[in-house]
Amino acid sequence: MAGLFITFEGPDGAGKTTQLKLLAHHLQSLGIPYIVTREPGGTPLADKIRALLLDVQNENMAPKTEALLYAASRAQHVEEVIKPALVRGDVVLCDRYIDASIAYQAVGLNLSPDMIRRWSVEATDGLWPHRTFLIDVPSEFGLSRIAARGTPDRIEGRGVLYHERVRRTFLELARQEPDRFVILDGSATIEAIADQIRHEMNRLLNL
Ligand SMILES: Nc1ncnc2c1ncn2[C@@H]1O[C@H](COP(=O)(O)OP(=O)(O)OP(=O)(O)O)[C@@H](O)[C@H]1O
Ligand SMILES: [Mg+2]
To answer: What is the tens place of the pLDDT at every residue in 148-189?
Structure first.
């Protein structure tokens, strides 16, 4: 596959969506074909699964159900959106991916990280991103940024300890794969972070 697969990860409110949009503008200005997508969701079918996952009424959802729904949504997303885009040679900018499942479901819900990884690897035929921008912020900091948005969804409402474990897991995943991850300090200004991302992207594109 000729394209470049880029993911954005990090705690809630870290600035993933903000930076993804700025990188999209950058690619647009360079005339490089790209698509923007997100998980869970990214296709009509996967969006229905996303709605199940975020619905506060599903408070009795079993951890393995949650993890399998993420894997199911991802299988659809890869097949219908990501792989075709990469085959066309596009840059794929994706808001969250497998690392988020490992951080949120495996560690947060006390499931085996290996099992979660296995499920997602099966679901995606082992499609991993070329680069993952991990925007790191203390979880309380991130949560306070998005508090203004209103009522938290089912995952956001899980409390600071859960989110702090999620954050530490992201950092551990990055430590294990230093060639894939770029860790960014999410407490820097939006422009400073965007600059670092553009720099790395230009390098990947041999510009
Ligand atoms: N570096 C930054 N400095 C200050 N504010 C920021 C920064 N990055 C993002 N914000 C603001 O914080 C809020 C959350 O940003 P954003 O939606 O990009 O985070 P996110 O990681 O996508 O969140 P979520 O996990 O909920 O999707 C927005 O209001 C955004 O404008
Ligand atoms: Mg976002």
So the answer is: 777 777 777 777 888 889 999 999 999 999 999 999 999 999
Fold for the domain defined by 4-204? Rossmann fold (3.40.50)
Task: Kindly give the interhelix angle for 16-30 and 190-204, rounded to the nearest 10 degrees.
Answer: 50
- Every domain of the chain and the residues it spans: 4-204
Q: Residues near 58 by Cβ (< 8 Å), separated by ≥ 6?
A: 52, 154
Q: What separation in Å is there between the alpha carbon of 20 and the centre of ligand 2?
A: 9
d(CA 115, CA 123): 12
Phi, psi (deg, nearest 5) at residue 7: -120, 155
Which helix (H) or strand (E) is 191 found in, with range? helix 190-204
Cβ–Cβ under 8 Å, residues 56 and 154: yes
> From atom 5 of ligand 1, which residue's Cα is the shortest distance away?
190
Pocket of ligand 1 (CB under 6 A): 10, 12-18, 145-146, 186, 188-190, 193
* Per-residue pLDDT reduced to its tens digit, 31-85: 999 999 999 888 999 999 989 988 989 889 999 999 999 999 999 999 999 999 9
Q: Are strands 131-136 and 181-185 parallel, antiparallel or unpaired?
A: parallel
Query: Within a 10 A sphere around the Cβ of 117, how many other Cβ atoms?
Result: 16
Which bound ligand lies closest to the C-alpha atom of 146? 1
